[in-house]
Specification:
Layout: H1 2-35, E1 41-42, H2 45-49, E2 54-61, E3 72-73, E4 78-81, E5 86-92, E6 100-111, E7 115-119, E8 126-135, E9 139-143, E10 147-153
Parallel strand pairs: 1-8
Antiparallel strand pairs: 2-3, 2-4, 2-10, 4-5, 5-6, 6-7, 7-8, 8-9, 9-10
């Protein structure tokens, strides 16, 4: 009986360790992308940014990027950079976290394969810029000024 209990306990402990190890590696990868420790990595910006919508997963404040412990969980705001150069942006409602509050459609352009220009639809002037820190077919990291945000793909939400 003691042997069986020890075997089960060892198996559970190994499973917890494996999950912890995977979580640590994921946080390290997010940190590298957000802090640009491996330099800026951009693969096929025009194509990969519009593959499907993005959901915010984590963020770091600009002045506080010393280690992986500075990564914070983000609210899952929704960013869909559509092929028609229109960003569909849906922000989570603070009062009802399971629902979107603000929804916007913002024209955008990608400049020099590494900067997203957000354009005011009324006067066509550049309203804001976000620098792409990391982009491939699975992940996106943006420098949005005061914060850096890490994104993963999300299903299309109507």
């Amino acid at each position: 009986m003691k042997t069986t209990f020890f075997a089960i306990f060892s198996f559970i402990n190994f499973g917890i360790y494996a999950q912890s190890d995977a979580a640590i590696k994921a946080r390290e990868q997010m940190y590298k992308a957000l802090a640009s420790t491996d330099g800026v990595v951009i693969k096929n910006a025009e194509k990969n940014i519009s593959l499907s919508p993005w959901e915010a997963l984590a963020y770091m404040e600009e002045g506080r990027m010393l280690s992986t412990s500075d990564i914070n969980e983000a609210v899952p705001d929704y960013y869909y950079f559509q092929n028609n150069n229109l960003l569909q942006l849906k922000l989570i409602d603070a009062k009802y976290p399971e629902a979107f509050g603000t929804e916007l459609a913002v024209p955008y352009q990608i400049k020099d394969n590494n900067t997203i220009l957000l354009i005011n639809p009324k006067d066509r002037k550049i309203e804001d810029t976000w620098d792409i820190l990391y982009l491939d077919e699975n992940y996106l990291a943006l420098d949005m000024g005061d914060i850096r945000v890490f994104f993963i793909h999300a299903p299309i939400k109507e």
